Amino acid sequence: MAAASPQTPPAASILRDPVHLLAFGLGSGLSPRAPGTAGTLAAVPLFLLMLQGLPLWAYLLVTALAALAGIGLCGESARRLGVHDHPGIVWDEFVGLWITLIAVPAGWSWILAGFVLFRLFDILKPWPIGWLDRHLGGGIGIMLDDVLAGLYALGVLQGLAWFLL
User: Has this prediction a pTM greater than 0.90?
Assistant: First the structure.
């Protein structure tokens, strides 16, 4: 028998609570289908803002701070919801995509490739991502699998860029 999916509080209560609002990716995690993909997609406009307004060192700093803050943010949201890694918690997807797109070559095709690679690694969870996802709890467990998926995708994306450009 399949486990019941966790209950999500009403959208209004998610959007009014700053912790849930951020953890749910500014509401993108409320998507009834594929909230992780919706969260990753919602991270793209913020990526574009950072790309336009920040030098690389500042982009790296913002991404690192977002990852560190995400440990507490996602952990607290999960605690309040009573579910370890509620599917609607997608701040980790935001950070994972931003890691993937570090120093990405210019162009929508590269952003799309990064998006696809990140989603692939996040869904497939190759070793040690899957193992860590199953064995680490709290905010660090929620964040770490997406950080690693982002690093894997970053490596592949940069390898493709080096090979193709």
Answer: yes
